């Protein structure tokens, strides 16, 4: 039995590799909303204890503004858990401490933030004051494998949904920390000049680090298909998060 959660990556892509359904051309049924409904249905079906995204993706959902405490406070390091029985959890990788929540949840799911050790105490106090849980890394950058072990040990997370964005998915794949990869391919196009695919690894790509073994292909509504793969990781070395 592994000491980390099973990591299940669920992503959605246009035919040309776009990541954001709001930018896709319409479905054959005439509207763009079908793409998000397909994703949400698969998210529920895969039944994770938690879902994890990078800073950029979480910033689209966490709409708070900075509100540090007015007076100095003592904060907990390396972690603070405001709720240990709140499945599912909404987890964000935010190594520099740039996210603000204004509450303890995202869409009703308890918020947990994974941070680098350079984050100021004032930011930790803000998170704790909002009822947000957090884990502070031993170093400036977050060791993903260590973070997963802590999430399983402290919060009982057994199945973690990795749901973007592209850089954080690339980091997990490069570290050999993804067990399953599920991609909804929509019959749509993105075609923006600045578009990037659903996986990005900035340093040297993923060649030699990841192999995929086909598991299944399932037709979905609105002309989409679900491609499922077992991830056979070639790399087992620690890898730092890109958020």
From TrEMBL:
Signal peptide: none annotated. Pathway: Cofactor biosynthesis; riboflavin biosynthesis. One of its GO terms (biological process) is riboflavin biosynthetic process. SUPFAM superfamilies: Dihydrofolate reductase-like. The keyword NADP applies. Keywords: NADP, Oxidoreductase. Residues 5-189 form the Bacterial bifunctional deaminase-reductase C-terminal domain. GO terms for molecular function: 5-amino-6-(5-phosphoribosylamino)uracil reductase activity. PANTHER family: 2,5-DIAMINO-6-RIBOSYLAMINO-4(3H)-PYRIMIDINONE 5'-PHOSPHATE REDUCTASE (PTHR38011:SF7), DIHYDROFOLATE REDUCTASE FAMILY PROTEIN (AFU_ORTHOLOGUE AFUA_8G06820) (PTHR38011). This is Riboflavin biosynthesis pyrimidine reductase. The lineage of its organism: Bacteria, Pseudomonadati, Pseudomonadota, Alphaproteobacteria, Sphingomonadales.
